Amino acid sequence: MRDVERVVAGGATIRFVIGEYGAGKTFFLNLVRLIALERKCITLHADLAPDRRLHASAGQARGLYAEAVRNMATRTRPNGGALPSVVERFVTDCVNEASNNARPVERVVDDRLAHLQEYIGGYDYATVLKAYWCGSEEGDENLKDAALRWLRGEYSTKTEARQALGVRNIIGDNDVYDALKLLAAFVRLAGYAGLFIVFDEMVNLYKLQSSQARNQNFEQILRILNDVLQGNVGGIGFAFGGTPEFLMDTRRGLYSYAALQSRLAENSFARDGLVDLSGPIVRLQNLTPEDLLILLAKIRAIFALGDPSNYLVPDDALPMFMQHCNRHVGEAYFRTPRNTIKAFVQFLAVLEQNPETKWQNLIGDMEVALDAEAAMDLELGDEGGGSNDDLSSIRL
């Protein structure tokens, strides 16, 4: 909450939300996005993937930017696709200001966009926004669509952008972070409180086989981190979601990059149950067995629509279900509860649709598996990093 308030006040923030697979990172990040929307911020969100990352040379970084901007959300457009309405709001505000002050609309647009030209790539950004206004004035939908395509990073060649908009540059793989800073400045010009960006599945950087590719992406993270901590940016917040391996692995994770390891090192005094949330790292706390018991009881209540008389299983079934999970999975059943919850929902679904079935018999036949993603990462870590990694195993 304080991070969102800092963005609203014109500051900047960065957080790395760290948790095991199934620990609730995505839920937590979505909750942060909703809080930002309530505070009149604009949010972007995207999941990293093999074809979407922070730095690349074959369009993957531009793909991440395009996906994030397509998912742009406002309080009135929480499901994404809010870019046209944001630009329209800017144009409408310019028209209203020109009307109230008896000034030409073009002069008002130029004055407002002059601030953007202080940023890297700001001249072309301002030119594209002005082109959108021209298209709006002239009723040229093709020009408006071309401007939105450019702002979304959908042009792959400079020639195509020059023909459509008269600009010399596009948002490419090397311009993603600069484009995000420009977007943060623009949304404040459009009357919003700030920009909050959520990138999940950062573990995909940890999975990159090439150490050079990983380091190039880590350099982008370092650049963002330095700008935020040194106060070089404002009105923008970042939240990254990743696993402990993504952060702490000294061969493939962020800690393999010395500059990041020193900046992200956690408070050595925060131990024995003490926490420090002032740093950039936020570790999601594990559920206790008691927490999971309460959660299962609430899921049971949801299935019964809040009516205790419609509970599909009695209170005794909940600890028995947990004991069954403990025997099959171990303590991971409450540390990373995603599969446990999924199994419990499936358990209740079968009972609901087959009322003659006894829950005692069903529990004995049920299987709860370890998280497949976590198992895959363990295998990846055991491989030693691939042929392009900096270190290799030598047997004498």
Automatic annotation (TrEMBL):
Source organism superkingdom: Bacteria
Protein name (database record): Probable ATP /GTP binding protein
Organism expressing this protein natively: Methyloceanibacter caenitepidi
